[in-house]
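Re: Re: ligand-bound prediction request (bumping)

Still looking for help on this. To restate: I need the protein modeled with S-adenosylmethionine bound, output as structure tokens. Inputs repeated here so nobody has to scroll up.
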Amino acid sequence: MTDLWSGTYKNPRYWGDTAAALIATAELHPGSTVLDLGTGYGGTLFPVRERIGDTGRMVGIDVEAECVEWTRQEIATRGIGNVEVLLMDARSMSFPDACFDVIVAGMVGLDEDYDFDANQPIDGAPMIREMLRILKAGGRLYLSGWLWQEHLEWMAQLVRQFVPDSDKHGYFPTTREGYLDLLRGSGFERIHTTPFDERYTFDDPAAWMAVVRHSWEPELSRIQDVPARRRAFENAAFDLLAAHTDAGGRLAYRISALLVAAQKPAAGCPANHRRNRESRARGWVPL
Ligand SMILES: C[S@@+](CC[C@H](N)C(=O)[O-])C[C@H]1O[C@@H](n2cnc3c(N)ncnc32)[C@H](O)[C@@H]1O
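Reply:
Sorry for the wait, this slipped through. Here it is.
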């Protein structure tokens, strides 16, 4: 029988596919000035950099120092000159007003800006408000978010059997209506959404477990550490996954994401005519 805990993590293909799909919708031109918000490990940054070429300028930001360090190293390894990555919180960015042509934000949760369960913005939607501020008039925003990830829902279902107070999905589910409400309410216009729906497979339960487990490490260690609970969890997992196994013995699952494009009004946004303060621009050379 497969050892459920033995798989090693491999970046699932859908990450690259959703980033590629987002970028395919984007108006990006050689020479553009682009912010990659929530750079992570560069899943969106590097393909966008290819599109804008050597004459453009690109900045990535992330709140995780480890991501910033890793991506800086990768940029150096690739010998790319016109990209920099900064440790910065997207809710309070130190860029001057109106300095980017394009912002891309691949799979950056907007859970601090919008309550997608209650369908309402949160506390003035700090991240979206900042995006609007730093975009040039007529500048474009491209973002993506998860609507559904079936393979993570399987794990959520299992964990709930063993840890009843766990209410995690393992990802942050969003809705099309929520994005429209958030972006319209913040002053964006020309908002278009494109669904991204795909079916993928894992070779076996261990491959599934390796990809999904990291969101539930605290719960799983409580299960793993008690032999009887561990066995019960494994049995429940194999039963549940059997229902999703295809004829070739592989686990078939669906994911749904939403790709969202929007524009800052060409004439500027009245709500956004806040003057840039000296301190905000510290450490940043205006573009
Ligand atoms: C799911 S990853 C996506 C990474 C990348 N955009 C991609 O397409 O592969 C989301 C990233 O957004 C970053 N992030 C979340 N909130 C942020 C914030 N307030 N400011 C900056 N980065 C943030 C996280 O640290 C994480 O690295």
